[in-house]
Specification:
CATH topology of the largest domain: Rossmann fold
Number of helices: 12
Shape: elongated
CATH superfamily of the largest domain: NAD(P)-binding Rossmann-like Domain
CATH architecture of the largest domain: 3-Layer(aba) Sandwich
Structural class: alpha/beta
Distance between the termini: 29 Å
Largest sheet: 8 strands, mixed
Helix content: 40-55%
CATH class of the largest domain: Alpha Beta
Radius of gyration: 21 Å
Number of domains: 2
Number of strands: 8
Strand content: 5-15%
């Protein structure tokens, strides 16, 4: 086996994997040249090369041979075929799946590699990821700390049991899309309330969400306590919250998380 010469290897460099790569380079976790990628889409591959300066592999087997740690950034249905393709090239190496709906036991069954799963999200591109890692049966303490350090560099990283991964996928992975819906709805409400410039209104809504989230992270207060700091009895916030309750807004968002988690469990049955 050829000696590993790249710190990190990514099989797939699309939306999620590409976000992780961009975040790691932004946060200077390693030099761009220490990341090797195999991405079949020419435009995606070229963008990573030109924007960031990463290295490119000719195929999956070359990448698996040359990288110390291999990340699977492919679609769930491609995880097991890719693992079978790279075969013994990952023996004694760490493989980290970024895919939803493919269980560690099913990956371990077809590879001699040490396997972990990480659920992260696209805000990793700006160093604001919410990530959770799950250990495999062969994971070493060194693997655990290495992966935790990688994802802590681009946001927050927690450890969960694999049976919690579907919930993490729904909350952390799918969650940004649900937040974007909220931002869009907030901006639409602003326009209906009298604001005229759509671009400025959208920016105002997004910044408000960002600021509120940052305060929730830094203040140590519960959501209920933070709500109390905004609400005045009989005031504008109270009027808006009353309508949200009537419209079951909170229940709808919670239901979206439950639906996404349920789909993750279904995918695990499909991708064996």
């Amino acid at each position: 086996m050829k000696e590993a010469s790249y710190q990190l290897g990514f099989i797939g460099g699309g939306k999620l994997a590409g976000s992780v790569i961009r975040g790691l380079v932004l946060k200077e976790f390693c030099a761009p040249q220490q990341i090797i990628v195999n991405e079949p889409n020419t435009a995606t591959r070229t963008a990573l090369q030109n924007e960031i300066g990463i290295s490119v592999a000719e195929d999956n087997r070359q990448l698996a041979t040359m990288a110390e740690t291999i990340f699977l950034g492919v679609k769930p249905q491609m995880v097991l075929p890719v693992i079978r393709e790279i075969g013994s090239d990952v023996e004694n190496k760490l493989v980290v799946s970024l895919a939803a709906g493919v269980r560690i036991k099913d990956i371990e069954a077809v590879t001699p590699a040490r396997v972990m799963r990480v659920m992260t999200n696209t805000p990793s591109a700006i160093g604001r990821a919410a990530s959770a890692l799950a250990l495999g049966t062969r994971t070493t303490s060194e693997d655990r700390e290495k992966v935790r350090a990688i994802f802590a560099a681009i946001g927050i990283a927690i450890e969960v049991e694999e049976n919690e991964i579907d919930a993490v996928t729904a909350l952390g992975g799918s969650g940004p899309a649900f937040v974007y819906i909220v931002i869009k709805a907030l901006a639409a409400g602003g326009i209906k309330a009298g604001l005229k410039n759509e671009k400025d209104t959208l920016q105002l809504a997004a910044q408000m969400v960002s600021g509120a989230a940052e305060l929730a992270l830094s203040s140590g207060k519960t959501p209920e306590e933070l709500i109390a700091t905004v609400v005045t009895p009989g005031g504008t916030t109270a009027a808006g919250l009353q309508v949200m309750q009537q419209q079951s807004t909170a229940a709808g968002i919670s239901a979206a998380i439950e639906a996404a988690a349920a789909r993750g469990r279904e995918m695990a049955k499909e991708n064996r």
